[in-house]
Amino acid sequence: MINQISIKVVLAILVILLSSCNTDKNTEVEKSLTLQAKDSWKYKHLKGKFYTDKYGKLFEQKVYAIAGKEETINSQIYFDSLVYINLDDTVIEKSLSEAIDIKTYAEFDEGTMYSKDINNIYYSNASSSGAFRLIVSGANPKTFKPLSDYLYGIDSKNIFYRGKKIEGLNFEKHEILYSLDTTDFFIDYIKDDKVVFYDGDTVKGADAKTFKLVAGQKWRAEDKNYKYECCGQRVE
């Protein structure tokens, strides 16, 4: 099961990389690439992909995707020193050295984008500039665990999608609707007693009480009012 999920994670990341690669280089990545070429060989390895320079500044080794000829993808290793926080649609940068407690930092099982330390939960969001690390606001490191779908996580009070809390979800009444395809454990929908969610967004007009997944039909889900194709779209 883990191997199946891991393969899907890799495929998903490759799709993201292929769809977002271009010739424009992020300023911070350019700085990191330059820095890596000059003195990264002097960095001290701590654990996983984390290193420090001679001043004790923390860096994370990442891979930057570069579009090559004939739709090929080349890659370049670089070192990133930042972590990001999403607050009310505003992205705040923070130094890795300030954010991560490297002594308690640990990865979850293979097949998830989440990791943790004693203070925070982190989500690695894949992009052509390398996976950038987000602090998952509001997540409790003591109770957080990834769900079988690598994009989702849950703690004692909230469910998270791609590092963000699903807003408007009644956690006490939540129900996770896993794919009816028994070859995978991906999440199709999450609902509570009033609202249905797909990829963290509300499925407008869906009746949560009667909403269910179906098999053997041209549609994937239905409620008393509508039938739904993939991605929460109604069948017209």
TrEMBL record:
Extent of the signal sequence: 1-24
Keywords, alphabetical: Signal
Superkingdom of this protein's organism: Bacteria
Protein name: DKNYY family protein
Organism: Kaistella antarctica
